Amino acid sequence: MSMGRFASAQAPVTPLPLITKAIPSSGEKIPAIGLGTDAFRDSERDAIRDEIKRMTELGGSLIDTAAAYGDSEALIGDSLASLGVRGRIFIATKLTAGGGLFGGGAGGEQSLKRSLERLKTQRLDLLQVHNLDGVETLIPMLQDWKRAGKIRYVGVTTSRLGQHAELVEVMRKYPLDFIQVDYSIGNRDAATSVFPTALERRVAVLVNLPLARASLIGQAGTRPLPEWTADIDVSSWGQFFLKYVISHPAVTCAIPGSTKVAHLEDNQGAARGRLADAAMRARMEQYWGSVA
Q1: pTM score, two decimals?
Q2: Contact between residue 266 and residue 240 where contact means Cβ atoms under 8 Å apart
Q3: What is the pLDDT of residues 136-177, one digit of tens each?
Q4: How far apart are alpha carbons 64 and 73 in whole angstroms?
């Protein structure tokens, strides 16, 4: 029987244990699957609210956004306020030094103020330098804001393989709590170029593009899942790809994007049950390499 992307979406949520991982710099644990966002529009307001509501019901808590993502911060802030769940959500957002990535051209401290206002919060859980843009200027500022209690954790991000070497240099130069990097079963460069340094420096890792912008789902198509994936509580291809990502010892949380509750439910299913060990990860790589 063929099992596709949403094979488990209609089934009741199983009471499998929630997979959490510790942030190395503090020991605080967060669920291993969060929610990534993009340039949301006001027309998606209800969809975003429904997703956040469902995520909290399923045990998820981390939402990643950015000043650059259109109305995303404001729509998330409105949703959190209307749902009354800000205290249950780990908010991560991003900024640049010059502000060229978002409207108004304001960077640095103006960007922080704008994010706090739009997200309707007095403190951010994680503030990240977007695509390493302005690291030397911003990291000292972020450290000051952390000491002042305006943010809890400091990080940097990239979604570009070509920036992996620079990301490693930044990890070695600055005391970071988090990095964010692109990684999937179809794009494993970070496992050798970035993760060893993250483990050495005790830096938490958020993974963007864990589904390679849904291209992995497209490649899987209607192909049936191998029976042995039941050994790690996988019931869809999306969960296969996500469990592969979060089972890496360096990875703290994967942040797949979605705008539909059915997608979110399927993704959150990967945050429960058993994780792949090294032997299972090798089996997953070998199998996917043979069919992709």
Answers
A1: 0.92
A2: no
A3: 999 999 999 999 999 999 999 999 999 999 999 999 999 999
A4: 9
